[in-house]
Amino acid sequence: MDCYFQSVRQSAEIVKMKLIQLYGVLLRRHGPQGWWPTRQFGYHSSNGSRMLSEEELLEICIGAVLTQNTSWKNVEKALDALFGAGLVDLEKLSGVNQRRLASLIRSSGYFRQKAKKLKLFAQYVLKKHGSMSKLFDRLRVTNEIREELLSLWGVGPETADSMLLYAGRRPVFVVDAYTKRICSNLDICSADVDYHELQGLFYGEFEQRITNNEERSALFNEFHALFVAEGKSLRVQPKRS
């Protein structure tokens, strides 16, 4: 832990800080993050609010799978390869040879498993919904989409929630190793806290404070990105499910 958070822990007031206070601390420390970065816009302040294209929706979901157990730098290399091959498209991704797909995403690690996950995801969405926008249709219930995503092979809570938050713009908080490490360091939770238990702390803090779903989604977007920024500065190694 760096000297900044050592000093934070030494303050009884801050150790017991509310999550809303932690959000303010991290925002002042790192500034707006502009997540989820896409090939067209990169890290941009509009990413949390503008209308996303079909390609961007798929790109975000592909990224959520590829970033499991690796760095975003490695994901970017894999995405570049997929764009170069014209595979950031539901029909093409669902029909591509799996071995070829695996070779294209080798930089992301666990590339054979991830290739299988991506093909199954694309095939499912194409058959069940026909498009990414229909998967995340605003009239659909968030928990229904979440359970649907979790039913797919290789998609765990963190991956599903990343898709929901960044592609679906749903007020779902993403919990990762960065979140757990920082919150446990500040005595907000225990080091072995369960995913949904920690997620529930964020819901409990913000659901009554911010009742508008779009505003809460935007805050969860920024908050999770800030945890990642802080986690990188603390050299925390993330693990995704």
Would you kindly provide a brief summary of this structure?
The protein is mainly α and 241 residues long. The chain has helices spanning 3-9, 12-15, 19-30, 54-66, 72-84, 90-95, 98-104, 111-128, 132-135, 142-150, 157-167, 177-185, 195-206, 213-233.
Task: Please tell me about this protein's structure.
With 241 residues, the chain is mainly α. The chain folds into two domains: 3-31 and 173-233; 45-167, Hypothetical protein, domain 2 (Endonuclease III, domain 1), CATH 1.10.340.30. It is built from 14 helices and no strands. It has helices at residues 3-9, 12-15, 19-30, 54-66, 72-84, 90-95, 98-104, 111-128, 132-135, 142-150, 157-167, 177-185, 195-206, 213-233. Helix 7 crosses helix 8, helix 10 (142-150) crosses helix 11 (157-167) and helix 12 (177-185) packs across helix 14. The radius of gyration is 18 Å and the shape is globular. The model is unreliable at 1-16 and 236-241 (pLDDT under 50).
Structural class: mainly alpha
Number of separate helices = 14
CATH topology of the largest domain: Endonuclease III, domain 1
Q: Could you give the count of β-strands?
A: 0
Separation of termini?
Answer: 24 Å
Q: Segments where pLDDT lies below 50 for 5+ residues?
A: 1-16, 236-241
For the record, the CATH class of the largest domain is: Mainly Alpha
In oligomeric terms, what are we looking at? Answer: single chain
CATH architecture of the largest domain: Orthogonal Bundle
The main β sheet shows up as: none
**Beta-strand content estimate:** under 5%
Provide the CATH superfamily of the largest domain.
Answer: Hypothetical protein, domain 2
From the spread of the alpha carbons, the general shape counts as: globular
Rg from alpha-carbon coordinates? 18 Å
Can you give the helix content as a percent range?
A: 55-70%
Mean pLDDT: 90
Number of domains: 2
